[in-house]
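## retry 2 of 3
previous attempt timed out at serialization; input unchanged, resubmitting
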Amino acid sequence: MRKKSLGVNALLNGLRSALNLIFPLITFPYVSRVLSVDGMGIYNFSNTYVNYFVLIAGLGVATYAVREGAKYRDNEEEISEFASQVFTINMISTLIAYLLLIGSLLIFSNLRNYVTCILIFSLQLFFTTIGTEWVYTIYEEYEYITIRSIAFKIISIVLLFLLVHSPNDYLWYAAITVFAGVGSNILNYIHAKSFCKIKFVKETNWRYHLKPILVIFASAVAITLYISSDTTILGLLKGNYAVGIYGVAVKIYTIVSGLISGLLVVTIPRLAMLIGKKRVKEYNRVLQEVINSVSILGLPAAVGLVMLSREVILIIAGKKYLEGTLSLQIITWALIFSNYSTIFNQCVLIPLKRESKTLRNTVITGLVNVGLNFIFIPLWSYNGTALSTVIAEFMVMFMNGWSARDYVGPILKSKRTFKSILDSIIGCVGIALVCVLLKLGISSLILRTVLSVGLSVIMYGAILVFFKNEIALEYLNKIMNRMRKK
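## retry succeeded, writing output
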């Protein structure tokens, strides 16, 4: 198999993440103004509720498949057998998830107002399983996924402006969201057969696959406790309006977080392959690059979003959501912790088959987060929810880092990593100064925001180059070389 370039993959997946960023930036300002706060609350609650069952349907298969499948990808017969068995397990878990979802709708009468919206979102269960996106991750094939994303995002934007016109059109918005996210997954399933043969099989090695899958699944459940439970508990204690306000802060946070984490995803199959083949030296080198890159990207993203939180909410959602400004400023700090936690977990613990430690860490963190929500939400409503998320992300980052200390410890203690973090902190001071000065001097919202982002990027980059940051100089050299070739 032709070796994929991590740089090219990062660029493609970055483009895909940028599309996921641009899509809500185009649609959400329109939707948040057309739909009522209560309508957005129903949409957010239904989406969050269905995500629990998406989790059950997924069963941790995708993470397990990438880790194990990376070892077989050079042998079509072995990867086909492996993929078919994993797909079979995934289809059975999807059926179980649907039975549980329908049962919950019949049992809990307080879900009646959400039934239609929940059923629309439930289409994600089937289409996510059929999509077998883990096959593309195993083979580091991001080109097809990126092209597909462009096509379906464009179609979804057209449908949105055609179908969503009034406060009661949140059901159309839900359907379009599902279409944009998983509508192309039948095409995925068909196209995946160009890499390996995937089919439902009767003979599946349950004993071999099920234990690690269930451990990874249990970890995912615990992670959901401190991600999705926030919205659920907030809705139960404070109602749809609070969920609608908090949902805007979470949406903005998720957009920025997804853009950064999208650059990390491409390294996971490579790291799994390297450690699976005992190429430890190469593994450590790639891991160091990933950690240093996150150090350079995560902190300025958080500082910039905190400085421009009010402007971002006004532009994306409008004045009626300004109450969520403090929530956004609080939850933004989770960006830093969550990205490091993702590295420690997905790039170290999972490839090294330490999923039991991931499970322990996430269970403890999830339970603490649920407890904090029941304490903070009655006191501070959606601001309390944001605070509990930040504390949870810090906890899981610390615990995952400690569990992976034999690999990440030497990297975090190295002069290269220390210098990257120090350079980033100094650069962030420059970002804060730019934003403060522009707030004092420019009254136009759009002009101030555009200049703040643009000048902050220039200031941050200039500071990194001035202090001879390796990553900044590397990217600068690549840009200069491409300009010379042209």
